[in-house]
Amino acid sequence: MGKSWRPPTVDIGWAAYVSPFLLPISFFWDIFSYWRLLLRFWCSSGADNHQKNVSFVQEQVRAWRKKGNGRKMCTARPSWMSISQQKLGYKDRMFKVKVDSLQDIVNVDKEKMVVTVEPGITIGFLNRALVSMGYTLPVVPELDSLTIGGLVMGGGIESTSHKYGLFHHICTEYEVVTADGEVLTANQEVNDFLFHAIPMSYGTLGFVTSISINMVKYKPYIRLTYRASYNLDDTVQLLDTETHKKTANDSVEGIAFSKHTAVIMTGQFVRREEVEKEKINRMGLWYKPWFYQYVRTFLTKGKGEHVEYVPTLDFHQRHNKPTFWLSHVWLPWADGPCARFLTGWMLPMNHQLLQLVKETFIGVDFADNCVLQDFIIPIQHIKLALELNHSATGIYPLWMVPARLHFPTIPRTLLPKAGDVMFVDVGVYGFSHLPDWAGRDKTLRQFEKFTLKHNGFQALYAETLLSFDEFRSMFPRVVYDQARDRLPLCREAFPEVYQKVSRNGRKVGQAKDDDDLRKHA
After folding, report:
1. 227 closest CA partner among 338, 293, 327, 303
2. By three-state DSSP, how is residue 142 classified?
3. Which of 174, 214, 434, 516 is the 20 to 30 A CA-CA neighbour of 68?
Protein backbone atom coordinates (compact mmCIF):
# COMPACT_ATOMS: atom_id res chain seq x y z
CA MET A 1 0.00 0.00 0.00
CA GLY A 2 3.02 2.27 -0.12
CA LYS A 3 4.98 4.07 2.51
CA SER A 4 2.82 5.84 5.10
CA TRP A 5 3.08 9.60 5.29
CA ARG A 6 3.76 11.60 8.43
CA PRO A 7 3.90 15.37 8.93
CA PRO A 8 7.46 16.54 8.33
CA THR A 9 9.58 17.67 11.26
CA VAL A 10 10.64 21.24 10.57
CA ASP A 11 12.25 23.97 12.59
CA ILE A 12 9.15 26.01 13.36
CA GLY A 13 11.12 28.45 15.55
CA TRP A 14 9.50 31.75 16.31
CA ALA A 15 6.20 31.05 14.49
CA ALA A 16 5.14 28.35 16.95
CA TYR A 17 5.46 30.78 19.84
CA VAL A 18 3.91 33.82 18.16
CA SER A 19 0.93 32.13 16.52
CA PRO A 20 -1.11 31.36 19.69
CA PHE A 21 -1.17 35.09 20.44
CA LEU A 22 -2.12 35.97 16.86
CA LEU A 23 -4.98 33.45 16.63
CA PRO A 24 -7.62 35.45 18.57
CA ILE A 25 -6.58 38.68 16.83
CA SER A 26 -6.95 36.94 13.48
CA PHE A 27 -10.34 35.51 14.44
CA PHE A 28 -11.91 38.78 15.53
CA TRP A 29 -10.37 40.73 12.66
CA ASP A 30 -11.87 38.35 10.12
CA ILE A 31 -15.31 38.56 11.77
CA PHE A 32 -15.15 42.36 11.73
CA SER A 33 -14.05 42.43 8.08
CA TYR A 34 -16.81 40.06 6.97
CA TRP A 35 -19.64 41.93 8.68
CA ARG A 36 -18.24 45.25 7.48
CA LEU A 37 -18.43 43.94 3.92
CA LEU A 38 -22.00 42.69 4.31
CA LEU A 39 -23.22 45.88 5.99
CA ARG A 40 -21.64 48.05 3.30
CA PHE A 41 -23.28 45.91 0.62
CA TRP A 42 -26.71 45.93 2.31
CA CYS A 43 -26.48 49.71 2.72
CA SER A 44 -25.23 50.06 -0.88
CA SER A 45 -22.27 52.05 0.42
CA GLY A 46 -19.88 49.92 -1.62
CA ALA A 47 -21.63 50.87 -4.86
CA ASP A 48 -22.10 54.48 -3.75
CA ASN A 49 -18.45 54.91 -2.81
CA HIS A 50 -17.00 53.11 -5.81
CA GLN A 51 -16.80 56.16 -8.04
CA LYS A 52 -15.18 58.12 -5.24
CA ASN A 53 -12.61 55.35 -4.80
CA VAL A 54 -11.87 55.33 -8.54
CA SER A 55 -11.50 59.11 -8.58
CA PHE A 56 -8.98 58.87 -5.73
CA VAL A 57 -6.89 56.46 -7.79
CA GLN A 58 -7.12 58.81 -10.78
CA GLU A 59 -5.94 61.74 -8.67
CA GLN A 60 -2.88 59.81 -7.53
CA VAL A 61 -2.03 58.72 -11.08
CA ARG A 62 -2.25 62.33 -12.27
CA ALA A 63 -0.06 63.38 -9.37
CA TRP A 64 2.53 60.84 -10.54
CA ARG A 65 2.80 62.68 -13.84
CA LYS A 66 3.85 65.82 -11.91
CA LYS A 67 5.74 64.35 -8.95
CA GLY A 68 6.88 60.94 -10.12
CA ASN A 69 10.39 62.11 -11.00
CA GLY A 70 10.95 59.19 -13.34
CA ARG A 71 9.71 56.53 -10.93
CA LYS A 72 7.34 53.86 -12.11
CA MET A 73 4.05 53.20 -10.31
CA CYS A 74 2.83 50.32 -8.16
CA THR A 75 0.15 49.81 -5.54
CA ALA A 76 0.94 50.83 -1.97
CA ARG A 77 -0.19 47.40 -0.75
CA PRO A 78 2.61 46.18 1.57
CA SER A 79 4.44 42.97 0.78
CA TRP A 80 3.24 41.26 3.97
CA MET A 81 -0.27 41.24 2.52
CA SER A 82 0.93 39.13 -0.42
CA ILE A 83 1.09 35.32 -0.50
CA SER A 84 4.32 35.51 -2.49
CA GLN A 85 7.58 34.31 -0.97
CA GLN A 86 9.44 36.81 -3.14
CA LYS A 87 11.19 39.83 -1.71
CA LEU A 88 9.17 42.79 -2.95
CA GLY A 89 11.75 45.47 -2.24
CA TYR A 90 11.15 46.98 -5.67
CA LYS A 91 8.19 48.89 -4.26
CA ASP A 92 10.49 51.00 -2.08
CA ARG A 93 11.83 52.86 -5.13
CA MET A 94 8.48 53.29 -6.90
CA PHE A 95 5.62 55.79 -6.78
CA LYS A 96 3.01 54.12 -4.60
CA VAL A 97 -0.70 54.47 -5.35
CA LYS A 98 -3.12 53.71 -2.52
CA VAL A 99 -5.83 51.26 -3.53
CA ASP A 100 -6.71 49.85 -0.10
CA SER A 101 -10.23 51.35 -0.21
CA LEU A 102 -11.17 49.11 -3.17
CA GLN A 103 -12.53 46.18 -1.14
CA ASP A 104 -16.29 46.14 -1.68
CA ILE A 105 -19.03 44.44 -3.68
CA VAL A 106 -20.22 46.98 -6.24
CA ASN A 107 -23.21 45.17 -7.74
CA VAL A 108 -24.94 41.79 -7.94
CA ASP A 109 -26.87 41.41 -11.20
CA LYS A 110 -29.18 38.43 -10.63
CA GLU A 111 -30.57 38.53 -14.17
CA LYS A 112 -27.21 38.48 -15.94
CA MET A 113 -25.73 36.29 -13.17
CA VAL A 114 -22.74 38.61 -12.80
CA VAL A 115 -21.20 40.10 -9.66
CA THR A 116 -19.03 43.22 -9.87
CA VAL A 117 -16.46 43.73 -7.14
CA GLU A 118 -13.46 45.84 -6.32
CA PRO A 119 -10.10 44.03 -6.59
CA GLY A 120 -9.16 44.16 -2.90
CA ILE A 121 -12.04 41.99 -1.71
CA THR A 122 -10.95 38.48 -0.76
CA ILE A 123 -12.41 35.33 -2.28
CA GLY A 124 -13.43 34.08 1.17
CA PHE A 125 -15.51 37.13 2.06
CA LEU A 126 -17.00 37.41 -1.42
CA ASN A 127 -17.99 33.77 -1.60
CA ARG A 128 -19.64 33.77 1.83
CA ALA A 129 -21.56 36.91 0.92
CA LEU A 130 -22.76 35.36 -2.35
CA VAL A 131 -23.72 32.08 -0.66
CA SER A 132 -25.91 34.04 1.76
CA MET A 133 -27.82 35.25 -1.34
CA GLY A 134 -28.02 31.81 -2.98
CA TYR A 135 -25.11 32.20 -5.43
CA THR A 136 -21.45 31.30 -5.74
CA LEU A 137 -18.66 31.47 -8.33
CA PRO A 138 -17.78 28.70 -10.80
CA VAL A 139 -14.16 28.78 -9.54
CA VAL A 140 -13.58 29.31 -5.80
CA PRO A 141 -9.87 29.09 -4.87
CA GLU A 142 -9.53 27.46 -1.47
CA LEU A 143 -7.58 30.01 0.59
CA ASP A 144 -9.89 32.73 1.90
CA SER A 145 -7.23 35.45 2.02
CA LEU A 146 -6.61 35.54 -1.76
CA THR A 147 -7.85 38.78 -3.31
CA ILE A 148 -9.91 38.90 -6.49
CA GLY A 149 -7.39 41.25 -8.08
CA GLY A 150 -4.57 38.86 -7.28
CA LEU A 151 -6.47 35.90 -8.69
CA VAL A 152 -6.95 37.75 -11.98
CA MET A 153 -3.52 39.32 -12.39
CA GLY A 154 -1.49 36.54 -10.79
CA GLY A 155 -3.61 33.49 -11.54
CA GLY A 156 -6.09 31.35 -9.63
CA ILE A 157 -7.04 27.68 -9.90
CA GLU A 158 -9.43 25.29 -8.18
CA SER A 159 -10.83 21.78 -8.50
CA THR A 160 -13.54 23.01 -10.90
CA SER A 161 -10.94 24.45 -13.29
CA HIS A 162 -11.13 21.41 -15.60
CA LYS A 163 -14.57 22.78 -16.56
CA TYR A 164 -14.21 26.55 -16.21
CA GLY A 165 -10.51 27.25 -16.56
CA LEU A 166 -8.48 29.58 -14.38
CA PHE A 167 -10.12 32.31 -12.34
CA HIS A 168 -9.76 34.98 -15.01
CA HIS A 169 -11.64 32.77 -17.49
CA ILE A 170 -14.87 33.38 -15.52
CA CYS A 171 -14.38 37.17 -15.56
CA THR A 172 -16.40 39.22 -18.05
CA GLU A 173 -15.21 42.80 -17.63
CA TYR A 174 -12.51 44.97 -16.06
CA GLU A 175 -12.46 48.64 -15.17
CA VAL A 176 -8.94 50.05 -15.36
CA VAL A 177 -7.31 53.38 -14.52
CA THR A 178 -4.57 53.81 -17.09
CA ALA A 179 -1.30 55.73 -16.77
CA ASP A 180 -2.80 58.94 -18.16
CA GLY A 181 -5.43 58.96 -15.40
CA GLU A 182 -8.33 57.90 -17.60
CA VAL A 183 -10.78 55.07 -16.89
CA LEU A 184 -11.24 52.32 -19.48
CA THR A 185 -13.80 49.54 -19.55
CA ALA A 186 -12.51 46.31 -21.09
CA ASN A 187 -14.57 43.30 -22.15
CA GLN A 188 -14.97 41.03 -25.18
CA GLU A 189 -16.55 43.85 -27.23
CA VAL A 190 -14.92 47.04 -25.89
CA ASN A 191 -11.15 47.41 -25.58
CA ASP A 192 -10.80 43.68 -26.07
CA PHE A 193 -7.03 44.03 -26.44
CA LEU A 194 -6.88 45.17 -22.80
CA PHE A 195 -9.42 42.59 -21.64
CA HIS A 196 -7.22 39.75 -22.86
CA ALA A 197 -3.97 41.37 -21.67
CA ILE A 198 -4.99 42.04 -18.05
CA PRO A 199 -4.82 38.42 -16.78
CA MET A 200 -1.34 37.51 -15.53
CA SER A 201 -0.17 41.09 -16.11
CA TYR A 202 0.66 41.57 -12.43
CA GLY A 203 -0.48 45.20 -12.36
CA THR A 204 1.77 46.39 -15.19
CA LEU A 205 -0.94 47.78 -17.50
CA GLY A 206 -2.88 49.97 -15.11
CA PHE A 207 -4.80 49.90 -11.84
CA VAL A 208 -7.81 47.58 -12.00
CA THR A 209 -10.64 49.17 -10.03
CA SER A 210 -13.47 46.71 -10.62
CA ILE A 211 -13.91 43.17 -11.91
CA SER A 212 -17.13 41.56 -13.17
CA ILE A 213 -17.41 37.80 -12.66
CA ASN A 214 -19.89 35.15 -13.73
CA MET A 215 -21.98 33.62 -10.94
CA VAL A 216 -23.77 30.28 -10.70
CA LYS A 217 -26.67 29.13 -8.55
CA TYR A 218 -25.52 27.73 -5.24
CA LYS A 219 -26.21 24.06 -4.61
CA PRO A 220 -25.88 23.28 -0.89
CA TYR A 221 -23.99 19.97 -1.13
CA ILE A 222 -21.36 18.22 -3.17
CA ARG A 223 -21.40 14.45 -3.64
CA LEU A 224 -17.74 13.66 -3.03
CA THR A 225 -16.17 10.36 -4.08
CA TYR A 226 -12.75 9.27 -2.77
CA ARG A 227 -10.65 6.73 -4.68
CA ALA A 228 -7.34 5.51 -3.26
CA SER A 229 -4.43 4.60 -5.51
CA TYR A 230 -1.33 2.57 -4.61
CA ASN A 231 0.63 2.84 -7.83
CA LEU A 232 1.90 5.86 -9.77
CA ASP A 233 0.57 4.57 -13.08
CA ASP A 234 -2.85 4.00 -11.52
CA THR A 235 -2.82 7.51 -10.05
CA VAL A 236 -2.07 9.07 -13.43
CA GLN A 237 -4.67 6.95 -15.21
CA LEU A 238 -7.34 7.64 -12.61
CA LEU A 239 -6.72 11.40 -12.72
CA ASP A 240 -6.87 11.38 -16.52
CA THR A 241 -10.04 9.28 -16.64
CA GLU A 242 -11.95 11.35 -14.09
CA THR A 243 -10.84 14.62 -15.67
CA HIS A 244 -12.15 13.63 -19.10
CA LYS A 245 -15.24 11.79 -17.88
CA LYS A 246 -18.27 12.55 -20.05
CA THR A 247 -20.57 12.36 -17.03
CA ALA A 248 -19.26 15.79 -16.10
CA ASN A 249 -17.54 15.78 -12.75
CA ASP A 250 -17.94 19.25 -11.26
CA SER A 251 -14.75 18.81 -9.23
CA VAL A 252 -11.56 16.80 -9.75
CA GLU A 253 -8.65 16.89 -7.32
CA GLY A 254 -5.84 14.64 -6.19
CA ILE A 255 -3.51 14.53 -3.20
CA ALA A 256 -0.39 12.35 -3.40
CA PHE A 257 1.05 11.21 -0.07
CA SER A 258 4.05 9.40 -1.55
CA LYS A 259 5.30 8.45 -5.01
CA HIS A 260 2.91 5.51 -5.18
CA THR A 261 0.04 6.49 -2.86
CA ALA A 262 -2.61 9.07 -3.64
CA VAL A 263 -6.31 9.77 -3.26
CA ILE A 264 -8.27 11.13 -6.22
CA MET A 265 -11.47 12.99 -5.35
CA THR A 266 -14.34 13.80 -7.68
CA GLY A 267 -17.57 15.62 -6.95
CA GLN A 268 -20.93 16.71 -8.30
CA PHE A 269 -22.86 19.58 -6.75
CA VAL A 270 -26.37 18.48 -5.78
CA ARG A 271 -29.63 19.84 -4.43
CA ARG A 272 -30.69 19.16 -0.85
CA GLU A 273 -33.28 16.58 -1.87
CA GLU A 274 -30.59 14.52 -3.65
CA VAL A 275 -28.56 14.03 -0.48
CA GLU A 276 -28.32 10.70 1.36
CA LYS A 277 -28.53 12.10 4.89
CA GLU A 278 -26.69 9.22 6.54
CA LYS A 279 -23.62 10.04 4.40
CA ILE A 280 -23.37 13.74 5.27
CA ASN A 281 -19.95 14.91 6.49
CA ARG A 282 -19.94 18.46 7.89
CA MET A 283 -16.19 18.72 7.56
CA GLY A 284 -16.25 22.46 8.21
CA LEU A 285 -17.11 22.01 11.91
CA TRP A 286 -14.31 23.34 14.08
CA TYR A 287 -13.42 20.03 15.71
CA LYS A 288 -13.22 18.01 12.48
CA PRO A 289 -9.85 16.65 11.24
CA TRP A 290 -7.94 18.77 8.80
CA PHE A 291 -8.92 17.91 5.25
CA TYR A 292 -5.69 16.40 3.96
CA GLN A 293 -5.36 14.27 7.09
CA TYR A 294 -8.91 13.03 6.65
CA VAL A 295 -8.24 12.27 2.97
CA ARG A 296 -5.16 10.24 3.96
CA THR A 297 -7.37 7.84 5.95
CA PHE A 298 -8.83 6.52 2.71
CA LEU A 299 -5.47 4.89 1.97
CA THR A 300 -6.28 2.44 4.77
CA LYS A 301 -9.67 1.52 3.28
CA GLY A 302 -8.42 -0.14 0.12
CA LYS A 303 -9.46 0.35 -3.48
CA GLY A 304 -13.00 1.24 -4.40
CA GLU A 305 -15.30 4.26 -4.24
CA HIS A 306 -16.16 5.89 -0.94
CA VAL A 307 -19.00 8.43 -1.19
CA GLU A 308 -20.16 11.16 1.16
CA TYR A 309 -22.04 14.45 0.96
CA VAL A 310 -20.28 17.62 2.07
CA PRO A 311 -21.87 21.06 2.55
CA THR A 312 -20.64 23.12 -0.39
CA LEU A 313 -19.27 26.00 1.68
CA ASP A 314 -17.34 23.50 3.81
CA PHE A 315 -15.96 22.03 0.60
CA HIS A 316 -14.92 25.44 -0.71
CA GLN A 317 -12.98 26.06 2.51
CA ARG A 318 -11.56 22.56 2.96
CA HIS A 319 -7.90 23.62 2.64
CA ASN A 320 -8.31 26.75 4.74
CA LYS A 321 -7.58 25.54 8.27
CA PRO A 322 -4.47 23.53 7.39
CA THR A 323 -3.41 26.00 4.64
CA PHE A 324 -3.23 22.87 2.52
CA TRP A 325 -0.65 21.22 4.86
CA LEU A 326 1.51 24.15 5.93
CA SER A 327 -0.21 25.11 9.19
CA HIS A 328 2.07 22.61 10.95
CA VAL A 329 4.87 25.12 10.43
CA TRP A 330 3.32 27.76 12.69
CA LEU A 331 0.74 25.66 14.56
CA PRO A 332 2.45 22.30 15.18
CA TRP A 333 0.01 21.44 17.96
CA ALA A 334 -3.26 22.55 16.36
CA ASP A 335 -4.34 19.36 14.58
CA GLY A 336 -4.71 17.14 17.65
CA PRO A 337 -8.24 16.25 18.85
CA CYS A 338 -8.05 18.40 22.00
CA ALA A 339 -6.49 21.35 20.15
CA ARG A 340 -9.13 21.17 17.42
CA PHE A 341 -11.93 21.15 19.99
CA LEU A 342 -10.49 24.05 22.02
CA THR A 343 -9.04 26.28 19.29
CA GLY A 344 -10.35 24.96 15.96
CA TRP A 345 -13.12 27.59 15.93
CA MET A 346 -10.45 30.31 15.60
CA LEU A 347 -8.97 28.83 12.43
CA PRO A 348 -7.95 29.54 9.76
CA MET A 349 -5.36 31.99 10.95
CA ASN A 350 -4.94 35.09 8.86
CA HIS A 351 -1.53 34.43 7.33
CA GLN A 352 -1.05 38.15 6.65
CA LEU A 353 -0.64 38.80 10.39
CA LEU A 354 2.07 36.14 10.51
CA GLN A 355 3.73 37.66 7.44
CA LEU A 356 3.65 41.09 9.11
CA VAL A 357 5.39 39.78 12.22
CA LYS A 358 7.88 37.83 10.14
CA GLU A 359 8.73 40.76 7.90
CA THR A 360 8.92 43.26 10.77
CA PHE A 361 10.93 41.30 13.30
CA ILE A 362 12.44 38.24 11.63
CA GLY A 363 13.22 39.10 8.01
CA VAL A 364 11.61 38.07 4.74
CA ASP A 365 13.76 35.17 3.59
CA PHE A 366 12.61 31.56 3.68
CA ALA A 367 14.63 28.49 4.58
CA ASP A 368 16.55 27.13 1.60
CA ASN A 369 14.68 23.82 1.70
CA CYS A 370 11.26 25.53 1.63
CA VAL A 371 9.45 25.10 -1.69
CA LEU A 372 6.22 26.92 -2.57
CA GLN A 373 5.65 26.40 -6.28
CA ASP A 374 2.90 25.54 -8.75
CA PHE A 375 3.67 24.11 -12.17
CA ILE A 376 0.88 23.63 -14.71
CA ILE A 377 1.80 20.76 -17.02
CA PRO A 378 -0.05 19.10 -19.94
CA ILE A 379 -1.77 16.04 -18.52
CA GLN A 380 0.12 13.63 -20.79
CA HIS A 381 3.34 14.62 -18.99
CA ILE A 382 2.02 14.45 -15.44
CA LYS A 383 3.75 11.15 -14.61
CA LEU A 384 7.14 12.64 -15.52
CA ALA A 385 6.34 15.70 -13.40
CA LEU A 386 5.49 13.59 -10.36
CA GLU A 387 8.66 11.55 -10.80
CA LEU A 388 10.69 14.75 -11.04
CA ASN A 389 9.19 16.08 -7.82
CA HIS A 390 9.91 12.79 -6.05
CA SER A 391 13.58 12.79 -7.04
CA ALA A 392 14.19 16.55 -6.74
CA THR A 393 12.29 17.43 -3.53
CA GLY A 394 10.63 14.37 -2.00
CA ILE A 395 7.96 16.75 -0.72
CA TYR A 396 4.57 15.28 0.18
CA PRO A 397 1.64 15.77 0.26
CA LEU A 398 1.44 17.00 -3.33
CA TRP A 399 -1.59 18.77 -4.82
CA MET A 400 -2.90 17.84 -8.27
CA VAL A 401 -5.69 19.80 -9.97
CA PRO A 402 -6.60 19.61 -13.67
CA ALA A 403 -7.37 22.79 -15.59
CA ARG A 404 -8.72 23.70 -19.01
CA LEU A 405 -6.75 26.51 -20.68
CA HIS A 406 -7.98 26.34 -24.28
CA PHE A 407 -11.17 28.34 -25.01
CA PRO A 408 -12.61 29.52 -28.36
CA THR A 409 -12.96 33.11 -27.07
CA ILE A 410 -9.22 33.44 -26.40
CA PRO A 411 -7.07 35.10 -29.11
CA ARG A 412 -5.00 32.60 -31.04
CA THR A 413 -1.71 34.07 -29.80
CA LEU A 414 -2.74 33.37 -26.19
CA LEU A 415 -3.64 29.73 -26.70
CA PRO A 416 -1.26 27.26 -25.02
CA LYS A 417 1.47 25.77 -27.21
CA ALA A 418 0.46 22.27 -26.13
CA GLY A 419 -2.86 22.74 -27.89
CA ASP A 420 -6.37 21.88 -26.77
CA VAL A 421 -5.35 19.48 -24.01
CA MET A 422 -6.02 19.34 -20.31
CA PHE A 423 -3.35 20.64 -17.96
CA VAL A 424 -2.63 19.64 -14.36
CA ASP A 425 -1.43 22.00 -11.64
CA VAL A 426 1.23 20.27 -9.55
CA GLY A 427 1.38 22.15 -6.24
CA VAL A 428 4.62 21.61 -4.32
CA TYR A 429 4.30 23.12 -0.84
CA GLY A 430 6.59 22.18 2.00
CA PHE A 431 10.14 21.43 3.13
CA SER A 432 12.52 19.03 1.45
CA HIS A 433 14.44 16.67 3.70
CA LEU A 434 16.36 14.83 1.01
CA PRO A 435 19.91 14.05 2.14
CA ASP A 436 21.19 15.12 -1.28
CA TRP A 437 19.01 18.24 -1.54
CA ALA A 438 20.49 20.35 -4.33
CA GLY A 439 19.31 23.67 -2.95
CA ARG A 440 16.25 25.76 -3.76
CA ASP A 441 17.62 27.60 -6.78
CA LYS A 442 19.04 24.52 -8.52
CA THR A 443 15.86 22.59 -7.85
CA LEU A 444 13.70 25.42 -9.13
CA ARG A 445 15.73 25.53 -12.34
CA GLN A 446 15.11 21.80 -12.79
CA PHE A 447 11.37 22.41 -12.57
CA GLU A 448 11.51 25.44 -14.84
CA LYS A 449 13.42 23.64 -17.57
CA PHE A 450 11.03 20.70 -17.34
CA THR A 451 8.03 23.03 -17.57
CA LEU A 452 9.46 24.85 -20.59
CA LYS A 453 10.34 21.60 -22.35
CA HIS A 454 6.80 20.28 -21.95
CA ASN A 455 4.98 23.55 -22.86
CA GLY A 456 3.73 24.20 -19.36
CA PHE A 457 3.41 27.26 -17.15
CA GLN A 458 4.75 28.37 -13.80
CA ALA A 459 2.62 30.24 -11.26
CA LEU A 460 3.61 33.90 -11.08
CA TYR A 461 3.15 34.30 -7.32
CA ALA A 462 6.18 32.06 -6.74
CA GLU A 463 9.84 32.79 -7.30
CA THR A 464 11.16 32.38 -10.83
CA LEU A 465 14.71 32.21 -12.17
CA LEU A 466 13.69 32.17 -15.83
CA SER A 467 15.71 34.30 -18.22
CA PHE A 468 13.75 36.96 -20.08
CA ASP A 469 13.78 34.87 -23.26
CA GLU A 470 12.56 31.83 -21.33
CA PHE A 471 9.84 33.90 -19.72
CA ARG A 472 8.68 35.18 -23.09
CA SER A 473 8.61 31.61 -24.37
CA MET A 474 6.54 30.36 -21.43
CA PHE A 475 4.02 33.21 -21.42
CA PRO A 476 2.62 34.43 -24.78
CA ARG A 477 3.56 38.09 -25.22
CA VAL A 478 1.94 39.45 -28.37
CA VAL A 479 -1.28 40.68 -26.74
CA TYR A 480 0.54 41.98 -23.65
CA ASP A 481 3.16 43.88 -25.65
CA GLN A 482 0.51 45.38 -27.93
CA ALA A 483 -1.44 46.58 -24.89
CA ARG A 484 1.64 48.25 -23.40
CA ASP A 485 2.24 49.97 -26.75
CA ARG A 486 -1.36 51.11 -27.19
CA LEU A 487 -2.01 52.39 -23.66
CA PRO A 488 -0.80 55.99 -23.17
CA LEU A 489 2.33 56.31 -21.01
CA CYS A 490 2.14 52.63 -20.02
CA ARG A 491 5.80 51.82 -20.59
CA GLU A 492 6.88 54.97 -18.76
CA ALA A 493 4.50 54.30 -15.87
CA PHE A 494 4.74 50.57 -15.16
CA PRO A 495 7.57 48.05 -15.13
CA GLU A 496 7.59 45.03 -17.39
CA VAL A 497 5.89 42.06 -15.68
CA TYR A 498 9.18 40.15 -15.78
CA GLN A 499 10.74 42.90 -13.65
CA LYS A 500 8.18 42.22 -10.92
CA VAL A 501 7.98 38.43 -10.80
CA SER A 502 11.57 37.43 -11.55
CA ARG A 503 14.58 37.79 -9.28
CA ASN A 504 16.77 38.46 -12.32
CA GLY A 505 14.17 40.86 -13.71
CA ARG A 506 14.06 42.86 -10.49
CA LYS A 507 17.83 43.36 -10.65
CA VAL A 508 17.60 44.58 -14.23
CA GLY A 509 14.60 46.72 -13.37
CA GLN A 510 16.41 48.37 -10.48
CA ALA A 511 19.38 49.28 -12.64
CA LYS A 512 17.09 50.71 -15.32
CA ASP A 513 15.03 52.66 -12.76
CA ASP A 514 18.20 54.10 -11.23
CA ASP A 515 19.17 55.40 -14.69
CA ASP A 516 15.73 56.95 -15.14
CA LEU A 517 15.94 58.63 -11.74
CA ARG A 518 19.34 60.13 -12.57
CA LYS A 519 17.89 61.58 -15.78
CA HIS A 520 15.21 63.40 -13.78
CA ALA A 521 17.53 64.56 -11.00
Report:
1. 303
2. coil
3. 174
